[in-house]
Amino acid sequence: MITTLDNIKNTLIEDINQLTGGQLKQKYLSKDGVLTKLFKDIKDIEASQRKEYGEQLNGLKKDLEETILQKESNINNEKSTVSIDPSAPFDVNSSKDKRPHIIDLKGSSHPLMEELEIILDIFQRMGFDILESRQLDDDFHMFESLNFPKGHPARDMYDTFWTDENFVLPAHTSTMQNRALRRFGPPPIRVILPGRCFRNEATDASHEHTFYQIEGIYVDEAISMGNMQATIKEYLEQYLETDLEIKMQPAYFPFTEPDVEFVISCPFCNKKGCSTCANSGWIELMGCGMIHPNVLLAGGLDPQKYSGFAWGVGLDRLVAIKRGINDIRKLRDGDINFLRAL
Ligand code: DAH
């Protein structure tokens, strides 16, 4: 029996080197643990050997308990000396070999926000006010005030998310048109309405469930499609830093009449065809049109006296075109290497 103890001692030494305190406890001291079982066997030991056996077993147990205690206190000491910065990016605290990252984590604005600043700057120089859209809105601003009465089939074009309390995550920044007309009226009204939008999308390289739009509205007496064409073209040429040809194609939106799809010549290939324009030479960039009289009325303006135009363009899409990004989902991945390389 004493030889059995010697064998166990040898395995125990190996285990002490390899197992954690918890694992040792489980293997040797738990209800079915190796040492516990040996204690139960004491009664079967020959009387002449029982004393020595008992002493050896007790000694083993004491040594093991001490070792376990030591292992556990080592872990606690280690834990308490690792300093955690709760405000740091998630990968900084997690493992030691990632810590050198700290040195080059300087912090910077996201490319989407940088580009938004550039665009807002262009419009501010053109005399536009700025009002950011909301990230939770209601049926009136999402649909009703934009000439989508209840049951209107065009509501289906905007499959988005609703809360149980009947609030909506806006599917476009046009939700702000009514507020802008009321807040900045009487005309002239020139406002840019940037903001985050959400759609219940099957995502792919050019569709995301969360994205930014930049809405613009311009209302005054005797405003025409010609003013719309010139304003949007000027803005895009300044932003993309190149001359553009433009086309206007028919589209449908309940809140404009007429409704237009604004198309630009591809700034990369000069209409020859490339991967950015899907080899067509042209890029359909945004919806726009003359503001529907019902939308002006809902905003407290007389459509006999005033007219205006509005547009809504996807910021992510525009930035992807400008910076040559082939998948807009990358803009929201949070991949720091991708963002740094931009
Ligand atoms: N809100 C539209 C969309 O997201 C885009 C749009 C079209 C905005 C025409 C406008 C507009 O202001 O006049 O699909």
TrEMBL record:
Residues 188-321 form the Aminoacyl-transfer RNA synthetases class-II family profile domain. InterPro entries: aa-tRNA-synth_II (IPR006195), aa-tRNA-synth_II/BPL/LPL (IPR045864), Phe-tRNA-synth_IIc_asu (IPR004529), Phe-tRNA_ligase_II_N (IPR004188), Phenylalanyl-tRNA_Synthase (IPR002319), tRNA-bd_arm (IPR010978). Its main location: cytoplasm. Transmembrane segments: none annotated. One of its GO terms (cellular component) is cytoplasm. It is found in: Cytoplasm. It catalyses: tRNA(Phe) + L-phenylalanine + ATP = L-phenylalanyl-tRNA(Phe) + AMP + diphosphate + H(+). The keyword rRNA-binding does not apply. GO terms for molecular function: ATP binding; metal ion binding; phenylalanine-tRNA ligase activity; tRNA binding. SUPFAM superfamilies: Class II aaRS and biotin synthetases, tRNA-binding arm. PANTHER family: PHENYLALANINE--TRNA LIGASE, MITOCHONDRIAL (PTHR11538:SF41), PHENYLALANYL-TRNA SYNTHETASE (PTHR11538). This is phenylalanine--tRNA ligase. The lineage of its organism: Bacteria, Candidatus Dojkabacteria. The gene is pheS.
